[in-house]
Specification:
Elements lengths: L5 E5 L4 H12 L3 E5 L5 H8 L3 E3 L14 E5 L8 H8 L3 E4 H9 L3 E6 L4 H15 L4 E8 L4 E4 L5 E6 L13 E4 L7 H4 L2 H13 L4 E5 L12 E6 L7 E8 L5 E7 L2 E7 L4 H18 L3 H10 L8 E5 L4 E5 L4 H14 L5 E5 L4 H6 L1 H8 L4 E4 L16 H4 L6 E4 L5 H6 L5 E5 L8 H8 L2
Parallel strand pairs: 1-2, 1-4, 2-3, 4-5, 6-9, 6-10, 7-9, 10-11, 11-12, 12-13, 17-21, 18-19, 18-21, 19-20
Antiparallel strand pairs: 7-8, 13-14, 14-15, 16-17
Helix pairs in contact: 5-8, 5-9, 8-9, 10-12
Length: 450
């Protein structure tokens, strides 16, 4: 990095890219970048002094290729004019994942991988370490509600990283301690099938040096890694880290005793909602215990953890009206989240608004999406958010909708959503998706608060 004074990001508004941009701005580099559309995250970057523009204009790229490093995300289209310009004009270009790998080299890395739960778990690990007084640097896949950022910076040699399997990015990391939360099929446009997808997780496991913590039952064995293997689970009695004496209060918060190889931590109250977050807290506690964090400090920090924006995020929770927003965009995530909501709010009507993410994911998991969404009392289904993809002929939200067996269901365009909700008698409302459905959170809260 000593040869570069300016770092330019193609796709700077992404959650992972923005964390790295913030890190290098903190380190004193000149940082700027391009993104397709303005967002709250790009506005925050600009408020922090990072220049962001939204025109695909090569003239806005720093002219000196020798002193400018280009960082890009695979999500940007290769036909982007700015990308073509840096490729053809002598700039050094690196992927986001390689930059994260370089940052973690020479430090003790604690990483969380998995199809689901990695953002919540890694953010909780960072919170525990911060609350304990040790501190850490952390590159998070969401915005921590405790710190209102996706980046924490410390001067010690400890870093927490969310290990993203998209495009095999997590293979740039060599953690000391790591968790794998799930290995359900996803990103089949990249991996082709579940076999190759799970092989990538085993390759990741092989790069863990000290301890690997896997959810009980995942297909990873001692043949796949030289690290010590531990298991965790919410209730499985054979797991090394597990909950006992668990109970839930009327607002959806769990309290449990954590059984672990070194003893028991009594009466841990989870600061975030639902069984999913209770299980994620077990995984986070396992990492921190194996790292050497004091048990009492772990217990306290789990209780003060406010969660991650858009991960089972509670916006309104009154006796007669609840509104929650969640990032779930995979059928197994949806099924788990809806099941958790039904447990938290028995005998109440749960209305879910879902925006499918990617044509390829809709095609690959249409029947699984239909089964998961059928768990709702009422489904409001929106059009597919394409992200990086072009439309696939014959694939639309109707591909899912036709097989949903929920008692009530409706298929509408996102432009119709607010008017539709204004005429609904809502009890428990939840918005799901990884696209731009989060833009509705503020107007929904304003409407429901009138």
């Amino acid at each position: 990095m000593k040869n570069y004074s300016h770092i330019y990001f193609l796709g700077i508004g992404g959650i992972g890219m923005s964390a790295i941009a913030r890190y290098y701005a903190f380190k004193g580099f000149k940082v700027s970048g391009y993104d397709l559309t303005p967002s709250q995250l790009t506005a925050e970057l600009q408020a922090e002094g990072i220049e962001v523009h939204y025109d695909d204009n090569p003239a806005l790229i720093p002219a000196d290729a020798a002193s400018t490093l280009i960082v890009y995300t695979p999500a940007i289209p290769k036909e982007l004019k700015e990308y073509q310009h840096v490729v053809n004009n002598g700039y050094k270009i690196v992927k986001r994942s390689r930059m994260l790998g370089e940052i973690t080299e020479g430090q003790k890395c604690l990483a969380v991988a998995g199809t689901h739960g990695k953002t919540t778990t890694s953010t909780l690990v960072a919170h525990i370490l911060t609350e304990s007084g040790e501190g850490c640097s952390a590159f998070l896949g969401g915005t921590s509600k405790n710190y209102n950022t996706n980046l924490l910076v410390s001067h010690n040699k400890l870093v927490v990283a969310e290990a993203d399997e998209f495009d095999r990015s997590f293979l740039q990391l060599h953690p000391s301690i790591a968790v794998i939360t799930a290995m359900d099929a996803d990103h089949l446009d990249i991996y082709g099938d579940i076999g190759h997808y799970q092989d990538a997780f085993r390759d990741f496991a092989a790069q863990v040096s000290d301890a690997l913590i896997i959810k009980y039952g995942l297909p990873v064995t001692g043949k796949d890694t030289g690290a010590r293997i531990f298991t965790y689970h919410l209730s499985e009695p054979k797991a090394d880290f597990r909950a006992e004496n668990m109970h839930i209060d009327s607002f959806g918060h769990y309290t449990y005793d954590l059984c672990h190889p070194g003893g028991i931590i009594k009466d841990i109250r989870v600061g975030t909602l639902g069984a999913l977050n209770a299980e994620n807290s077990i995984a986070a506690a396992a990492i921190c215990l194996l790292h050497g964090t004091d048990a009492g400090k772990i217990r306290h920090a789990i209780g003060t953890y406010a969660g991650v924006k858009r991960r089972m995020e509670e916006h309104i929770n009154r006796d007669n009206l609840t509104y929650i927003d969640d990032y779930a965009h995979h059928p197994n995530e949806l099924a788990a989240a809806i099941s958790s909501l039904k447990e938290m709010f028995p005998k109440r009507k749960i209305t879910g608004v879902f925006q499918p993410h990617l044509y390829s994911r809709t095609r690959d998991f249409a029947s699984e999406f239909a089964n998961a969404l059928s768990l709702l009392d009422k489904l409001i289904l929106l059009d597919i958010y394409p992200a990086r993809e072009e439309p696939i002929p014959g694939i639309s939200s109707e591909t899912i909708f036709k097989d949903v067996s929920a008692k009530e269901k409706v298929l509408i365009k996102k432009e119709e959503l607010m008017d539709y909700l204004s005429r609904e008698a809502l009890d428990v409302l939840v918005t799901f998706g990884a696209g731009n459905i989060d833009r509705f959170v503020k107007p929904i809260c304003e409407m429901l608060s009138k």
